[in-house]
């Protein structure tokens, strides 16, 4: 219910930075107003006591005013001050009028936690300090005249209401803390994904692929570079939106062909990179053939017909830059040979040399 009300009147969702504080304000205003309304009934019907009935009626008005200031005027800070005025009025008046009778002094414990959570440490501490001074002053002024309290229905009602009020406040605070933690976790997960993902294609980005290669547990793996042939002419002829669509659809085809046998990433511009974990070179060769063929056959289903050039080689993490240079050289050879094809550069390493 709280989520629905805040969304409707304040256009605030749980993802909003102020949601926790606003939901706390609204729930406390509602709970305090309901407690004041109960005591209006108690002091008018069950045990008629005009002084506290007047105080409770004023508290109900303040509670409704706090809700109106929050939802109607959209002034959360004013709503919080009105709410604390309600709490101070009821708690202090109960102690002032009835002293320690009916365990009224227990109401002194409501204001401090509420003021801290509603107004923050600094302002809350000031309010709590002033409230403490008022309570201590009352005890000093009237304490000598107070008699031993008796247990009766009024005392039971006070204890139950104070307990329920603090319990509701604690439950809501814990629920909002968990909700905030969950939203923070989701936000961090999204940020972590954005750090390794290409926005346009949804593939892994260059940073992630390079980290993957450098931290690979295998000494050698197969790597291929893919370049869309004549991509600039596609942008010039059809426009960049069509070019972006070509990139996305090509990425989809590459992922579909590679499947679970490797990882596809966007290297930059119209270039893609594939990390393949084949056991045999022949399997890697078959993959490159399939990539060229599938892109040629399927690309025109989504837009302009495109082809790709692919260069592949063995990657050794001890020779990171040199290995990628060999892959780049293979791609260059594929381009120079007429495009729409693949080339492989074979090499090995001996000691500290990559041959």
What topology does this entry show?
Layout: H1 2-10, H2 19-46, H3 50-71, H4 76-98, H5 111-142, H6 153-196, H7 206-214, E1 220-228, H8 231-238, H9 240-258, E2 262-268, E3 271-276, H10 281-298, E4 308-316, H11 320-336, E5 342-345, E6 349-350, E7 353-354
How does this model look, in words?
It contains eleven helices and seven strands. A hairpin with a 2-residue loop joins β2 (262-268) and β3 (271-276). The protein is α+β, with helices and mostly antiparallel strands and 355 residues long. α2 runs antiparallel to α3, α2 packs antiparallel against α6 and α8 crosses α9 (240-258). The strands form two sheets. It has a five-stranded mixed sheet, sandwiched between helices. The longest helix has 44 residues, at 153-196. It has helices spanning 2-10, 19-46, 50-71, 76-98, 111-142, 153-196, 206-214, 231-238, 240-258, 281-298, 320-336; strands at residues 220-228, 262-268, 271-276, 308-316, 342-345, 349-350, 353-354.
Report low-confidence residues grouped into runs of 5 or more.
350-355
User: Sheet bearing the most strands, described?
Assistant: 5 strands, mixed
Order of helices and strands: HHHHHHHEHHEEHEHEEE
- How many β-strands, per DSSP? 7
Relative strand content: 5-15%
Helix content: 55-70%
Kindly name the structural category. alpha+beta
Mean pLDDT: 87
Annotation field: number of helices:
11
N- and C-termini, Cα separation: 69 Å
Side-by-side strand order of the widest sheet: 2-3-1-4-5
Overall shape: it is rod-shaped
Radius of gyration: 36 Å
Give a brief outline of the structure.
Helix content is 65%, strand content 11%. The chain has helices at residues 2-10, 19-46, 50-71, 76-98, 111-142, 153-196, 206-214, 231-238, 240-258, 281-298, 320-336, and strands at residues 220-228, 262-268, 271-276, 308-316, 342-345, 349-350, 353-354.
